[in-house]
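Reopening this ticket.

The earlier resolution said the output was attached, but the attachment link was broken on my side. Pasting everything inline this time so it's all in one place.
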Amino acid sequence: MNFLYRCGWLFFCALFRVYFRGRVCGADNVPPTGPVILAANHASFLDPPFVGSALHRPLFYLARASLFRKPLLGWLLPRWNSIPVDRDGGNAAGLRVIMDRLASGAGIILFPEGTRSFDGNLQPARSGIGLIAAKTDAPVVPVRICGSFEAWGRNCILPRPKPIVVKFGSSMRFESLRAEAKNCSRARLREIYSQIANEIMAAIAKLPRDL
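Inline output:
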């Protein structure tokens, strides 16, 4: 971790543990080194830093490209391992950076739903995460964040001290689909992306929602 990343990590660790009485389950399902995709549900602005604070390895995050044009955030976000993406959750440049980071052995947090939930319930997965998962050999670890919507969902002006639990499931590999994706038609490729995305979302849904 670089100095500023570690400072942020320590701050969010304290916030997670003290203010939100945070707990972590299944962190040993995440490899301590090497490439990994953490696929999490998304209900709050708290989700990215709290998934990151649940682990002792640095991670990369996606952030809206417009945030990088703001004076302070534009300087800080790259130092917090953030990757700029467009409003739809990805672009060619952002995809290249994601793949480069995974190829170099980094971990990255992705949100299959693409945007925060409006009611705290899981939304359908977008195919973008299926594309990324199909083009890498990195394991995919499903993550369920429980309580973040109640703590600071779209309907909350300020964060509330509600308990939050971050749960990590067993890793997923998709060996057969990844192998097929290398030599199939474009139509079948789109089906593979959707299938992988849906399987990831189903794995997230299977993780207990209880606190």
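Reporter confirms the inline version is readable. The radius of gyration is 16 Å. The domain at 24-206 is CATH 3.40.1130.10 (Glycerol-3-phosphate (1)-acyltransferase).
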